[in-house]
Amino acid sequence: MAINFPPPRRDPRSDPWHQLDAMARAAFPVAATVLGLLALAVPLGLPEQAALAPAFLFASVYFWSLFRPAAMTPALVFALGLFADLLGGGPLGLDVLLLLLLCALTRRWRRKLARWSFLLVWLVFSGFAAAGAALSFALTALFSLTLLPPAPALVEAGLAIGFYPLLAVLFTRAHRSLAADAEI
Predict the structure, then answer these.
(1) Could you state, in order of their start, the residue ranges of all structural domains in the chain?
(2) 147/137 Cα distance (integer angstroms)
(3) How many Å is the Cα radius of gyration of the chain?
(4) What's the half-sphere exposure (Cβ side, CA atoms, 13 Å) at 113?
(5) Are 95 and 85 in contact (CB under 8 A)?
(6) pTM above 0.90, yes or no
(7) pLDDT by residue for the chain (184 residues), tens digit each?
(8) Which residues of 43-78 are buried (b: 16+ CB within 10 A; e: fewer)?
């Protein structure tokens, strides 16, 4: 009488399709941010479209640094900032600096922020967006050695603050979908 042993089970993580799926999930936050920036770079005729790209970028880095920090590492934030600087035509390194500061502050406060209500998370983002727009305004004025009108910085901060709830809803759905599908 022969004993029939079941065939050895393969580890599903060693499956190439599973690995590709895991890489795609990890790349989603950065890929979605890059695609959003490219879409906003196309002349769509939207009012204040030039200010939407930094608002989208700031909100995206904040959200993903807060809720999926492994997918929004400082190295990737640096690359996103450099890409935005090259795409936007502003002072090279300005977006890199602002986004790295945002990423560092968000990661530092992450444990507290992730437990707070949406309203408080949005309020903190509003403070970060206002400070980021003010720092961007000050550094741009310093680089150009001229006094610039503050209206563009105010519009940029206002768009980022107002745009965040919509992006947070979309990103939250994507984040939950990524997490739910990964458990299957």
Answers:
(1) 30-38+49-183
(2) 10
(3) 20
(4) 20
(5) yes
(6) no
(7) 566 666 656 665 667 887 888 888 889 999 999 999 999 998 888 887 888 999 999 999 999 999 999 999 999 999 999 999 999 878 899 999 999 999 999 999 999 998 999 999 999 999 999 999 999 999 999 988 989 999 999 999 999 999 999 999 999 999 888 776 555 5
(8) eeeeeeeebbbbbbbbbbbbbbbbbbbebbeeebbb
